């Protein structure tokens, strides 16, 4: 293990021990809140947090005994909900492709590498994420138990893919499990399930639910980071897709699908899915169908190119990159329920740009619309998991009864959205679940 990783782990342990003894009440005084209705900041407010939730918000000072209380003077800064990324792959996004192919994908290796990435994500102000595919359950458990620092995670578990689908990660020498009886490496590590036919799809969905999936991720169309499937292909028959939806709905949750094309997405809608990931090749007719059926569209504004990108992937991504310039404004025009995410894969250096990617939405949305999307709206999508949500409670809002996932911003992000792109400098306080993970202001 590298010296830097050892130091990071040591500091995490020390910090976790400190916050475990932290008092359960926090009073944040003299802060302005974002009113999404008026699209303005409020007058000064006083916010009392007890345990994991916001107990009281007042326009007048709140009287509270200093015993068992952490008091923070907000100095007129902006208190806003924690940021939410609705499309991440914490494991795939923290590892390079050569690392993914190594034989050392042990739990210890993942904790050291991915755990550090999760901690950095929290310190960028992302207090919640929806992980839409990968071996995430051990990392999530470690964060929830306080062994690692990181955001709340809504896990999908292994992606579910047909043979030759977007989640078929087999190397050329790996043969079909059905014909040769050997489970592929990616399946052994919990990255994907290759499932064909109704019975196998049901088993794959139920297996993920057994491990604690909050929603199910199904590959319904071709992808740009997979070897076998062109972007234009449609994946899974209607019956197979319906099987996934039925199994998820029996557990009170939903299926979201990876798909780009109108044909794949129209089939998914017919099957009863509740959310579409990507959709950069959508046409107006299908967008109207999405809006009519009250389906979420979880969109990204993907990076155009990077020096380390595989040339074949660059070619496959070209129509997707061209399409994303068109689909965002069309989706807004037809009133589609939009969520935002980053979807970084196999290029860990991109993670540090997570906040900066929020600015890419300024082509089509106002600052207040963007902040609402990456907090309130993404929070609504997370709660689509219903009783399978691992963290019951309201997110993406600063209001009484909501979960205390908060950021204190040094300035007015409604006027200057760039404030969100420099969390080290501009995020004075970061709080998740009522626990303070960063506080650069003096405590009284």
TrEMBL record:
SUPFAM superfamilies: Composite domain of metallo-dependent hydrolases (SSF51338), Metallo-dependent hydrolases (SSF51556)
Amidohydrolase-related domain residues: 78-435
Name of a matching Pfam family: Amidohydro_1
Listed PANTHER family: ALPHA-D-RIBOSE 1-METHYLPHOSPHONATE 5-TRIPHOSPHATE DIPHOSPHATASE (PTHR43135:SF3)
Protein name as catalogued: Imidazolonepropionase-like amidohydrolase
Native source organism of the sequence: Sphingobacterium zeae
High-level lineage: Bacteria, Pseudomonadati, Bacteroidota, Sphingobacteriia, Sphingobacteriales
